[in-house]
Specification:
heterodimer; A: alpha+beta; four-stranded antiparallel sheet; three-stranded antiparallel sheet; 25% helix; 36% strand; elongated; B: mainly alpha; Arp2/3 complex 21 kDa subunit ARPC3; globular
């Protein structure tokens, strides 16, 4: 083990720790929303809203059934489902934190989660 | 005869790397990151690079990741491991060829591990189409220090014995 090795290890260690701390601070400061897709109670996919995922169609195919989820600009909807009543398709877009789309026959829950931002309407508004 | 010897030796190295790759998937890790692994089979690539040179090193690493895909049957992870293998091989060769007065094999192996992780994360970012996956890189970098250190340590012993007992090139 030469001196160069030790320097390299220290540099990489410092670099990774600094960027880790930076990422953690970033993650706490921006209150993004994200889409949580759950099947049978377990989260199978988590999508953070981003410019690059707008218009993306996501097939969710499980043992319980098939759904096609479309991600929009800060919103999400189901556009195809093989369940009989198609309630999830008729519900349309959801965009606010806490809103959910449920497809019971396929045991699919799509929920928008995130840190509530300060200026959104809450129960105290009249 | 010389060439045949070399081909046989390289294929033995590939199969050793394969065995190590299968073996390391059976070793439980204290931390469970997807993508973090010991990289024991990287030892073989590093030794090949040092003893035989770049062309044979990259051949061994590419063959290893192709055959490992056939053994484990995970085609999706093949894209990650293949790109990682190629980039880490190139990085290790550059480090060994031009900076071997600064780094021992440990440093070379750490650089290779870093390149492997970087390639993996880049491919993942292209595939899932989300740059946020790069936030994962610092964690992988931290693990690559440890795995790279041990791989480099082990390879330096292997290299010493290999050079001593066989007159290969």
């Amino acid at each position: 083990m030469t001196k160069g090795d030790k320097i390299l290890i220290v540099i990489v260690l410092i670099l990774s720790l600094i960027s880790m701390g930076y990422i953690r601070r970033q993650g706490l400061s921006n209150d993004d929303k994200y889409v949580s897709i759950q099947v049978n109670g377990a989260e199978v996919k988590k999508i953070i809203f981003d410019k690059s995922v707008v218009g993306k169609k996501l097939p969710i195919e499980t043992e319980f059934g098939y759904n096609l989820v479309e991600i929009g600009d800060n919103q999400v909807r189901v556009i195809e489902a093989d369940c009989p009543d198609k309630i999830d398709v008729k519900q349309g877009w959801i965009s606010r934190i806490g809103e959910t789309i449920v497809c019971l026959p396929n045991r699919l829950v799509i929920e928008i989660k995130g840190v509530e931002s300060v200026n959104s309407i809450d129960m105290m508004n009249y | 005869m010389k060439k045949l010897n070399k081909i046989i030796f390289l294929s033995v190295l590939v199969s050793v790397g394969l065995a190590l790759g299968v073996l390391e998937s059976a070793i439980p890790l204290p931390i469970s990151f997807p993508g973090a692994k010991l990289g024991l089979s990287n030892m073989v690539v590093l030794v090949t690079l040092v003893v035989f040179g770049f062309k044979d090193g990259i051949t061994v690493s590419m063959l290893k990741s192709i055959v490992l895909m056939l053994v484990t049957g995970s085609v999706s992870s093949f894209i990650y491991s293949f790109s990682g293998a190629v980039l880490s091989c190139i990085a290790m060769y550059i480090a060994y060829k031009y900076f071997s007065n600064i780094f021992s094999l440990i440093g070379v192996s750490i650089l290779g591990a870093l390149a492997h992780n970087f390639a993996q994360v880049t491919v993942a970012a292209i595939i899932i189409n989300n740059l946020r996956i790069y936030t994962y890189l610092p964690f992988l970098m931290l693990t690559s220090i440890f795995s790279g250190y041990f791989v480099g340590l082990a390879s330096s012993y292997i290299e010493r014995n290999l050079r001593g007992s066989y007159n290969i090139i």
